[in-house]
Amino acid sequence: MKKFKWKKVLLKISGESLMGSDTFGINPTEVKLFAKEISEVVLSGLQICIVVGGGNIYRGISSSENGMDRTTGDYMGMLATVMNSLAIQNALEQIGIETRVQSALPISAVCEPYIKRRAIRHMEKGRVVIFAAGTGNPYFTTDTAAALRASEMNCEAIIKATLVDGVYSADPKVDKNAIKFDRMTYLEVLSKDLKVMDASSISLARENKIPIIVCSIVENNNLTKVLSGNGSYTIITD
User: Fold this and answer.
1) 3-class DSSP string for 197-210
2) Disulfide-capable partner of 92 in 16, 62, 99, 191 (CB 3.0 to 4.6 Å)?
């Protein structure tokens, strides 16, 4: 194993990041880039699990604002995460990485049900486990699912993959004077309302003392660099 700072991590991928330059859906090229980055750390001996969002296909909160029942919208969003999970699984397995999708909603025809002990065993065998359908409950985001699964899997860190290389004081694509933070505390993120992850996920990570590393992973092998303590990122801890 390479000299990684963390030996077991959860990677949180937003659904929007799977769109690439598209405006909707799953961009195959972008998914392959993620798979390549993930495969390199897996082949180095790291245990990794993944939670992916569904915003590229369906966003429950937005639908509820337009009149749809929030619970129905959230369940539809969970199904979108299953679709994204299957796409990532396919991309990983095409390059030789064993992968299992476990869903919080039972969909036995395409994936396993979420079972903690089975997921841990898969990871011990070097397989990538993708947790789909969030927590399986409406009103909880995939960010919260990521913090929950990271706690259950005894992960040492949560890698929050974004389109930028860390947490900034403002959107760096809009404000050229935005300041990048190298290190923040959980309370600073909550008090500044920086929208890195939702408040419940930050609180859960804080309670279980799991650091959150915010970075971009589809450029210059940045995931490997970040896990080695290098690269460009923001770390959120106590």
Assistant:
1) CCHHHHHHHHHCCC
2) 99
Q: What does the longest C-alpha to C-alpha distance in the chain come to?
A: 51
* Structure token digits, residue 216: 């971009």
Tokens 């999970």 -> residue: 85
In degrees rounded to 5, what are phi and psi of residue 38? -65, -40
Domain boundaries, given as residue ranges, for the chain: 8-237
Return the residue matching tokens 């949560």.
Answer: 158
Q: Phi/psi of residue 209, each to 5°?
A: 55, 45
The CATH architecture annotation of domain 8-237 reads 3-Layer(aba) Sandwich (3.40)
| Length of the chain (residues) | 238
Q: How confident is the model at residue 216 (pLDDT cuts 50, 70, 90)?
A: confident
Q: Is the pLDDT of residue 98 over 80?
A: yes
pTM, 2 dp: 0.93
Q: Average pLDDT, stretch 113-131?
A: 97
Count of other CB atoms within 10 angstroms of residue 173? 10
Conformation bin of residue 193: beta by default, left when phi > 0, alpha when psi is -120 to 50: left
Lowest mean pLDDT among 24-33, 57-66, 67-76: 57-66
b/e string for 32-45 if b means 16 or more Cβ within 10 A? bbbbbbbbbbbeee
CB 182 within 8 A of CB 169: no
